[in-house]
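This part of the workshop introduces the protein records we will be handling. To make this concrete, we reproduce a full record directly below:
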Amino acid sequence: MDSQVPVALALSLVGGLSTSIGALFVILNKAPDLKMLGLLQGFAAGLMLSISFLDLAHNAMNSIGFLKGNLWFFAGVIFFAVIVNFIPEPSVSPVSDIKEKKKSGDEGGKDMIKKHRRQVLFSGIITAIGISLHNLPEGMAVFLGSIKGLRVGLNLALAIALHNIPEGVAVALPVYFATQSKWQAFKLSTLSGFAEPLGVIIVAYLFPTNLNPEILEGLLGAVGGVMAFLTLHEMLPLAFDYAGQKQAVKAVFFGMAFMSASLYLLEISLPEHMSL
């Protein structure tokens, strides 16, 4: 099994570092306006909702039972809700209020813009945490696929890379918007991808032979709960505020469709007796 670790690490880097490609899409183009930010946030929210409910929670309930799968899922929700509760979140007025105050020459307009930037930065950091948590089991999956053979591991890594690109955008875009720093946006997006090879290391060296499949499926379900909470708590409100409810909802379903297609690629890349 040790001989598979370097191969799995290399393949996981292919998938993990594709978040950097998403960051490059952001920093090499002119800064998008608030509406574009909202649409991309909605798209990323669709990605995460699809992963959470149609993949991670669904597989957990099928693998370990409806009750246990739900318990793990809501354990993830509660866990992340507690963490977010300890992070101070700035209260922000709607975008329309900012525009009105800017037109009226209100001196508080600049302060409100700063508050909006802090809110967007907070959302970007929380998104990076959630994506990192999701990338951990992806790294585990790449390692398990590599054990079956190079072709399986390579196909899996490439499919993961495909849907990690918009995840890199989801992290880099709000950070770049809030900080105006291309380096900070690229760095945070790239770091979220490094969780993938970390997942390989965890499986390979902490419990290479004792990994209980039921515990792994439960952890995947908990990650689904984490991602569902951060999507509904952080990303959707921003998408509605910046892009408008109708446009944001369209972006959400477009993101869900995109993720469903990439999850299908993951499914056909794995042997029949393996699943994510």
